[in-house]
Write a structure and sequence with these properties.
By secondary structure, this protein is an alpha/beta fold. Helices cover 42% and strands 10% of the residues.
Length: 385
């Protein structure tokens, strides 16, 4: 075959290939349809992605909420402001005692100095009884039984037994006879002094108030104890009356202590829930250097501080971060309670992410340093460190 024929054949094959290639290419309309279909698929994928991101965000919020609830159930008196009485089924109990069992035997260890009850001086005891041996512990001979006819050596062994004496009510009867006058013949009777006008003396009245207020015993239990232990029959109303008499007696010194509160250089303040006849109240405690002042109020607001300390307290107020204290003492010298910060930091470091716990504790630490820097530590007068 000649070279011209070969070139013609090659041109024919190239033209056929071009016709075949052009015949397989899609048209403009087909390309437009393909683009629109791919755009719809992309939109569907975007919607699915957005829905999946929403589901993930909802799941993360639920997880965070569950983690907060779980962390809240793990709060106790060692890592929050909850009182020790709340430790129990509501959360993990605080750890008590050693984490690891000791290999030592219970009780005092060898070489440990003993602790004994101190003896009261002989001159202060109520009675002394001398116990004499009847026979010699060496030869078995009889020994004299009269203290004046025996010979001793060294100091005797002393052993004391403390006992409550038999308790019996001491009742004083005051008689007021009708004395007839020799001049007019009329009878006159002396009035009862005010200090003995009641049926119970000051010591018994104070004991009833002590059991009722300090020991917080129910009045019926106080009534039963007086009858069973002291043999004093008393009605339930009389226990209430005794309590009211003591309350009136201490009204004046309580008022004096309340007037002293604004003049104290340092006060530690806190409040907690209190029930009075089933109604919710708040008992406030203000701790000064030499006394503690308690007051029961119907509110937890700043008006209690204003009524006790005035509109402005000039001293150092130590408290927790309850908003009432921060608002009342804004701009003044105050000391935040380090125990609260320590517990909150312990809880944050245990139950929150490490960086968040450090951040929260760091904020509290910085706030304390800023507010309390350069002031005296409550009750001690030492500089804060």
């Amino acid at each position: 075959m000649s070279a011209k024929a070969v070139r013609r054949h090659a041109r024919r094959q190239g033209a056929a290939a071009n016709r075949h290639r052009h015949s397989n290419q899609p048209s403009r309309e087909e390309l437009q349809q393909q683009v629109e279909r791919q755009q719809r698929e992309i939109e569907n994928l975007r919607e699915q992605l957005a829905e999946r991101e929403k589901q993930i965000a909802d799941a993360e919020r639920q997880i965070a909420d569950l983690e907060r609830q779980l962390a809240g159930r793990k709060k106790n008196s060692t890592n929050s402001s909850k009182p020790p009485s709340s430790d129990g089924l509501a959360g993990n109990q605080r750890s008590r005692g050693r984490k690891h069992k000791s290999k030592r035997k219970p009780g005092a260890q060898p070489g440990h100095p003993g602790h004994h009850r101190a003896l009261v001086p002989t001159a202060e005891v109520s009675a002394v009884e001398v116990l004499l041996p009847k026979q010699c512990g060496h030869c078995g001979g009889n020994l004299p039984q009269k203290p004046g006819k025996l010979t001793t050596e060294g100091e005797p062994r002393r052993h004391q037994v403390t006992e409550v004496p038999p308790v019996k009510a001491y009742i004083t009867e005051y008689q007021c006879p009708n004395v007839v006058c020799e001049h007019c013949g009329n009878a006159t009777r002396a009035p009862l002094p005010e200090e003995i006008a009641g049926q119970f003396g000051p010591q018994l009245t104070a004991l009833i108030a002590y059991w009722t207020v300090v020991c917080r015993l129910p009045r019926r239990l106080v009534e039963a104890m007086l009858g069973d232990v002291l043999g004093i029959e008393i009605s339930l109303g009389s226990t209430q009356k005794a309590w009211e008499e003591v309350s009136q007696a201490v009204e004046q010194p309580v008022q004096q202590l309340q007037e002293q509160l604004p003049r104290e250089a340092v006060l530690n303040v806190d409040e907690t829930g209190w029930r009075t006849n089933g109604d919710k109240r708040w008992i406030w405690a203000l701790v000064a250097q030499q006394f503690v002042f308690y007051v029961v109020a119907s509110t937890r607001g700043a008006e209690v501080l204003v009524s006790l300390l005035g509109a402005v307290y000039r001293g150092i107020l130590c408290s927790d971060r309850w908003v009432v204290y921060l608002t009342y003492h804004s701009g003044r010298r105050m000391q935040l309670c380090w125990a609260h910060l320590k517990r909150n930091g312990s809880f944050a470091g245990t139950h929150w992410p490490l960086w968040l716990g450090c951040s929260v504790f760091g904020i509290g630490f910085a706030a304390t340093c800023e507010i309390g820097a350069g002031i005296r530590s409550p009750l001690t007068g030492d500089n804060s460190s």
